[in-house]
């Protein structure tokens, strides 16, 4: 089964979804701003993609600066707390296939797990 944690307003996310569909896949589309992953799901996505929690965050969001999340002294738990409270901080799109998990920025990253 293929899943995409999708934000339809994001160009990377739309392009990644298009690549999946062009390959004949019908992914489960999870609009994570409407239905955020659980903390355990988010931790698994990040870990399985080989990322750090900080690498999985959107640092360009205004809320990132407002909450002082650039502070290198913050723990992973604190960063995850922020992501759970403000799903807009979750970078996108994460794609899950039988071959693995990738944060598809750029969208071509999806090719590695197809």
UniProtKB/TrEMBL annotation:
Keywords: Arsenical resistance, Oxidoreductase
Catalytic activity: [glutaredoxin]-dithiol + arsenate + glutathione + H(+) = glutathionyl-S-S-[glutaredoxin] + arsenite + H2O
Lineage top rank: taxon: Bacteria
Molecular function terms from GO: arsenate reductase (glutaredoxin) activity
EC number per UniProt: 1.20.4.1
Enzyme class name: oxidoreductase
Gene Ontology BP term (one): response to arsenic-containing substance
Entry keyword annotation includes Oxidoreductase: yes
Family: Belongs to the ArsC family.
Name listed for the protein in its UniProt record: Arsenate reductase
The organism's taxonomic lineage, starting at the top: Bacteria, Pseudomonadati, Pseudomonadota, Betaproteobacteria, Burkholderiales
